[in-house]
Amino acid sequence: MIFDNRIEPKRAGNLPVRVISLLLVLVISCGFLTACKGDKPGNKQDYAGEPVTEYRPSSAELYCHEISTYTGPYVEDGKNEDVKNVAAILVENRSKQFLDYATITYSVGGKVATFRVTGLPVGGKAWVLEADRLQLDGTHSFEFLDCESVFKKDAVTSTTDIEITTEGNVLTAKSKTSKTLKNVCVYYKNMNDDGNYLGGITYMINFGTVTPGQGVSNQSAHFGEKSRIVRFSFQEE
């Protein structure tokens, strides 16, 4: 679907932003490999190798680049009802993992503004609209409150096992393997005219079971020329 929308950046004099980056404490847990030589008291433990560090993304790697107002179809609930001057933030995933879900909150004029973003690929940016359609109509101060996030390290963002073809808002999934694929789903987001994703919402299409060489089609009212698949999920039988 092609959206007729307008993102209006607020000038510095109109919308002061106290906190523009989502900065939280980043904690990395490090494990060290050790080995015991012998079993008698007093024996020293010898260092057995390089420290093992597991990368763990955090909310500190989500950045808010801009706070604006949005006029157009409200996409976050899938209804696409027209709205005016709804608060919107431009969020970037600077981590090394797929962002499954994040809830970001600000204090705005004594109210809590909530922004929910899902399915954001590594390096992706999305205009996220306020969850309760909060309208801005003057000078407002945004004060960062909190950010809760969940990342998906095993997200399949591309695959040679499934071929997706499109015709309008109809998608067809074909198995490119010799195995039957079950619970085949694709997740997609729509693009804004500025090249960023529009909305924190991520849409899902379920194709069910796809056998080798078979094509299964499904329709999605929100899929169109500006749609981009961001993730696949399936199981091999």
> Low-confidence spans: pLDDT under 50, at least 5 residues?
1-7, 9-44
The backbone outline, from C-alpha atoms, is: flat
Structural class: mainly beta
Estimated helix fraction: under 10%
> How many angstroms does the end-to-end distance come to?
34 Å
Continuous helix count: 0
Strand order of the largest sheet: 1-6-7-10-15
Largest sheet: 5 strands, mixed
Helix and strand run: EEEEEEEEEEEEEEEEEE
Radius of gyration: 22 Å
Number of strand elements: 18
Portion in strands: over 45%
Arithmetic mean pLDDT: 82
Polypeptide structure, described:
The protein contains no helices and 18 strands. The model is unreliable at 1-7 and 9-44 (pLDDT under 50). The protein starts with 5 loop residues before the first strand and ends with a strand. It is mostly beta strands. β8 (98-108) and β9 (111-120) form a beta hairpin. The strands form six sheets. It has a five-stranded mixed beta sheet, with no helix packed on it. The radius of gyration is 22 Å and the shape is flat.
